[in-house]
């Protein structure tokens, strides 16, 4: 009898674990985003940072919602670390954390992060996202503008990782090189009047003839 009870308990635990982990929250990055997010897919994506206090409060609700979403819904859940994926953070114009987006057919809608667990489930189940205005197509993360902004975000992140002394050394060297080049050009007469075109048979340096005044 004890073995039967123990077996039922273990079966219950295993079932609970399997049910709890049936919908995984994927970690999307700059490198794998385009591979995972297809045009016809439906996604709910959270932008967060490990150091963000508000993100730590929203995270458990987001994970609980993922476990409560019915299997019949085709929506996929993901999260993006803005520190390790600056390109995506720039493409989606993320200015505060956490930020939640719903994506369907590459149409992007920003979602309220103050929703409770059941609110998030109902939001997806009842397709309440249809009541939210779609982002302007010109500034969509999937537009040419969004793609360009993403590259700028990656570049700025790489630039910030360069030691300050290297940045200032490179800038100072460029300025010195420009000054030296200007001085050499001036010394060689690159800016003299000798190379100026001659107009009407007269040299630009020739003095203009003075009109004589008639003295009574």
UniProtKB/TrEMBL annotation:
<feature type="transmembrane region" description="Helical">
    <location>
        <begin position="166"/>
        <end position="186"/>
    </location>
</feature>
<dbReference type="InterPro" id="IPR017937">
    <property type="entry name" value="Thioredoxin_CS"/>
</dbReference>
<keyword id="KW-1133">Transmembrane helix</keyword>
<keyword id="KW-0472">Membrane</keyword>
<dbReference type="InterPro" id="IPR036249">
    <property type="entry name" value="Thioredoxin-like_sf"/>
</dbReference>
<keyword id="KW-0256">Endoplasmic reticulum</keyword>
<feature type="region of interest" description="Disordered">
    <location>
        <begin position="194"/>
        <end position="216"/>
    </location>
</feature>
<keyword id="KW-0812">Transmembrane</keyword>
<protein>
    <recommendedName>
        <fullName>Thioredoxin domain-containing protein</fullName>
    </recommendedName>
</protein>
<dbReference type="Pfam" id="PF00085">
    <property type="entry name" value="Thioredoxin"/>
</dbReference>
<keyword id="KW-0249">Electron transport</keyword>
<dbReference type="InterPro" id="IPR013766">
    <property type="entry name" value="Thioredoxin_domain"/>
</dbReference>
<keyword id="KW-0597">Phosphoprotein</keyword>
<feature type="domain" description="Thioredoxin">
    <location>
        <begin position="4"/>
        <end position="129"/>
    </location>
</feature>
<feature type="transmembrane region" description="Helical">
    <location>
        <begin position="135"/>
        <end position="154"/>
    </location>
</feature>
<dbReference type="InterPro" id="IPR052454">
    <property type="entry name" value="TMX_domain-containing"/>
</dbReference>
<keyword id="KW-0732">Signal</keyword>
<feature type="signal peptide">
    <location>
        <begin position="1"/>
        <end position="19"/>
    </location>
</feature>
<keyword id="KW-1015">Disulfide bond</keyword>
<keyword id="KW-0676">Redox-active center</keyword>
<dbReference type="GO" id="GO:0005789">
    <property type="term" value="C:endoplasmic reticulum membrane"/>
</dbReference>
<keyword id="KW-0813">Transport</keyword>
């Amino acid at each position: 009898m004890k073995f039967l009870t123990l077996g039922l308990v273990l079966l219950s635990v295993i079932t609970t674990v399997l049910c709890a982990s049936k919908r995984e929250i994927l970690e999307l990055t700059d490198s794998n985003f385009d591979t995972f997010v297809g045009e016809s897919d439906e996604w709910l994506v959270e932008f967060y940072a490990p150091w963000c206090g508000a993100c730590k409060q929203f995270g458990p609700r987001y994970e609980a919602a993922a476990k409560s979403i019915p299997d019949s819904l085709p929506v996929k859940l993901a999260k993006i670390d803005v520190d390790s994926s600056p390109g995506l953070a720039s493409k989606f114009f993320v200015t505060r954390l956490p930020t939640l987006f719903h994506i369907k057919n590459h149409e992007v809608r920003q979602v309220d992060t103050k929703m409770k667990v059941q609110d998030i489930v109902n939001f997806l189940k009842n397709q309440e996202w249809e009541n939210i205005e779609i982002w302007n197509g010109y500034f969509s993360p999937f537009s040419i503008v969004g793609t360009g902004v993403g590259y700028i975000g990656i570049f700025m992140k790489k630039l910030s990782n360069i030691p300050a002394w290297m940045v200032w050394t490179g800038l100072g060297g460029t300025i010195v090189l420009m000054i030296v080049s200007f001085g050499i050009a001036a010394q060689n007469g690159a800016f003299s009047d000798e190379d100026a075109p001659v107009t009407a048979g007269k040299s630009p340096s020739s003095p203009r003839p003075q009109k004589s005044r008639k003295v009574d």
